[in-house]
Amino acid sequence: MASYLNEENIEGIALRCLDEVGYQVYKSASYTSPNAEIDAERNNDHTQPILKGQLENALRKLNPGFNDEVYRNAIHQFEMLADSPDMMLNNHKLHELIIGGAKVKTSIKGEDRTITLYPIDFKNVDNNTFVATNQFTMKQGEHERRPDITLFINGLPLVTFELKNPANANVGIQQAFTQFSTYKEEISSYMQYNEILIISDGINARAGSLTAGIDRFMRWREPKNVDIDDSMMELEVLIKYMLTPSDLLNIIQNFILFESDGDKTIKILAAYHQYYMVNKAVKRTSKVLADPDDKRIGVVWHTTGSGKSLSMVFYSGIVARKLGNPTILVINDRNDLDDQLFGTFAAAHEYLQQNPDHAESRGEVRKYMSKNSGGIVFSTI
């Protein structure tokens, strides 16, 4: 296959797959120019990474009934983000706006109010606009770059592909990854909106976050017990099982988190096995809560280094948000494991929207569990 594929062919394959899974695809007229319709949406302003018309339409549709100034204020927040020269601070703010909405002060019937406008409907995928385009030209200062493929949700450029020629033995996913480093330096105004990065050379395909090293860019596989055609490229599998509109919304809402040590921000994207396992565990938990006669949720087995601690964080966060904020008890059989896992949960307090607590005795465990107010409690056997 690699003998006749080139970078332009791979773009075409990716765009075809994206069209098949539900994206509106705007293909450029040539390999070296952007799509004219997409350019028109931003008034041919190549310094503008957002499709503002689509963003405004989404804000009005999902949050109806407010005056024009409210919507302009919300759009301005998405344009400014954290108003920082630090790309990751801006990216963190973007994620906060996507998940928590833009807070806008206004007056309603003479009363000062703060309202929240959401840019994406995570409950109803059909209420959103999913667009894919190639060769999206971006200018920043003296630099001009054209990322290979960009995916927009309601006008926000949230996914970027960098593709390399499989017929060239001197380039591959390492060079695609390096290209993203260039983009971060030269068109950070575009990259600060990114939620997921995709690299592929037509043979290999990997997904990662803005702060991930190449060793943390991971292959995305099909779900267990799903048979796929052996001829499917890794890139096709990734698009079909990671980037469908419903899967992409699920990942952005539930499987991305940020950690900070005060000096550096780290963005974490779940791996495919974490995504499938946690979704299954949440589904099973929901079923058990609805059936008082069946309390068996199941057992998870993952190998050492597979990210079990983060899987627990993702599970706890989703359960807290979707199942009425129950009290979650985490029991370890060793103090060192307890300290390690507690530290992981504490670092993810923003994602969890709460800080974990520690029970030092059975009496304290009983006290925590007797409260009907949620919480995440750690203890040892």
From TrEMBL:
Keyword ATP-binding (UniProt): yes
Location of the SWI2/SNF2 ATPase domain: 273-381
Catalytic activity as recorded in UniProt: Endonucleolytic cleavage of DNA to give random double-stranded fragments with terminal 5'-phosphates, ATP is simultaneously hydrolyzed
Protein's organism: Limosilactobacillus reuteri
Restriction endonuclease type I HsdR N-terminal domain sequence ranges: 5-213
Database matches in Gene3D superfamilies: 3.90.1570.50, P-loop containing nucleotide triphosphate hydrolases
Domain of life: Bacteria
One GO MF term attached to the UniProt entry: DNA binding
SUPFAM superfamilies xref list: P-loop containing nucleoside triphosphate hydrolases
Key words of the record: ATP-binding, DNA-binding, Endonuclease, Hydrolase, Nuclease, Nucleotide-binding, Restriction system
Family stated for the protein in its record: Belongs to the HsdR family.
Record GO biological process: DNA restriction-modification system
InterPro entries noted in UniProt: P-loop_NTPase (IPR027417), Restrct_endonuc_type1_HsdR_N (IPR007409), SWI2_SNF2 (IPR040980), Type-I_R_enzyme_R_subunit (IPR051268)
Record has Heme as a keyword: no
E.C. code: 3.1.21.3
Name of the featured protein: type I site-specific deoxyribonuclease
